[in-house]
Amino acid sequence: MNSTDWCALSQSAATVAIPSVARLVWIGERLWPIAWLAAAAARDRGGFDRVVLHYTDAQLPDDRSVQALVRDFDVELVHEDAAELLGGVAMAAAISASRAARLAALYTQLTPAASRSNLIRLAVLLRDGGVYLDTDAIVLRDMTPLLAQRGFAGLERVCLPAAVRDSRSPLRWARAGALIGLRDALSRRSLGLRLWPTVEGAFDLAVNNAVVGAEAGHPLLVDALTRAADMAPSRAIRMYQLGPKLLEAVTKNRSIGAFKLYPPAAFYPLPPEMSWHLFRSAPPPPLEVAFGADTWVVHLYDSVLRRRRGQSLDVPWLREHRGRTLVTTLVEPWLDALFAAQA
What we know:
Elements: H1 3-12, E1 21-26, H2 33-45, E2 50-55, H3 64-73, E3 76-79, H4 82-88, H5 97-109, H6 113-128, E4 130-133, E5 137-139, E6 151-158, H7 162-165, H8 170-187, H9 190-199, E7 204-214, H10 219-230, H11 233-236, H12 244-251, E8 260-262, H13 287-290, E9 297-299, H14 302-309, H15 315-320, H16 326-330, H17 335-341
Parallel strand pairs: 1-2, 1-4, 2-3, 6-8
Antiparallel strand pairs: 4-7, 5-9, 6-7
C-alpha cells in the first residue's frame, strides 16, 4: 500500500463504519487446530463479508489444513512483511517515521509469537479496519450489530488490573491474592462453574485485546502504536505489555468517545482460569444455556489451556472429548472438516 492509500484511509476514517471483515493473525509455519476452528467459526457464524488470515511465514500456505480453509470456507490469505507493515504506519496519521522505525525494530526483539501478533494486529487494523479475532476466540453468533460504530473491545474479570499492579497498598494486594486463590479453586471444581456468577462481581474489570473492532485510521490505534513505539524495549518484551496492558493504558478500562468497551459477557463469559471449565470432561449444557444472548464470542484463553495441559488443543484430544466438553460442543459444526483437513 502506498502513501496515497494510507492518507485516503486516514482522511475517510470519520465517515466509515467498521468494515465487515474478520481478521486473524498467525505467526508460524503450521496452523494449530484451535486457530483453524476459530477461522471456520468466524466464516460460518460471524456474518462477515470476508474472513482474512494475515500471516508472516511464507511456508504457511503449504499447510494442507490452511488450503482447506481457503478452499472450503473461502478464508483469504494475506502475507504481511512485518518490517514493511510497521514501517508503513508512519503514513497513516500522527505517527512519525522515527516511531514507525522503532516499532519495526521492536518487532525483531520480540520472541513470543503472541507478542509479535500484538503489534501486527494493531497495524493491520489501523491500515485496513475490521474486527480482529484471536486465534482462540470462537465466534458464537452474527457480529454485524457491532459494526455500526467506530471501534470496540471488551472487558474481562481479572485479579490484577493496572490500579492494583500500580498500588503500594498491602490491603489491595492482599485482596487480589485472595481473589486469585478463590478463582483458582473455582476453576478446578465442577461446582465452581455454578458458583462463579455469585462472586464474579468481586473481581475487577480490565480490557482485553483478543477481540478488537475498529475503522481504518482509528485514533485509539494511533495512540496505542505511539505508546508501543515510545515504550522501553526492556519493558515492551515483557508478557502482556503490548497486549491487554497497552490497551488498558489507552482506554483506562472505560468506553471513550468513539471506542466502546463491552461487558465481560460479550467476549469473555468465562475469564482467565475459569475458562478451564470449557475443557473439563462433563456432560456439557446446550450452548444457549451456557452462554446468553449477549455473548458474541467465547475466548478460550489458550494460554491457560497450555499451562495446565502442557499443550494446545490437538486433533486426538478433540476426537477423544467430542461431545463431552463445552469447547467441543462449541466447535462441533467444524470438527469433521478439521479432521479431514488434518488427516
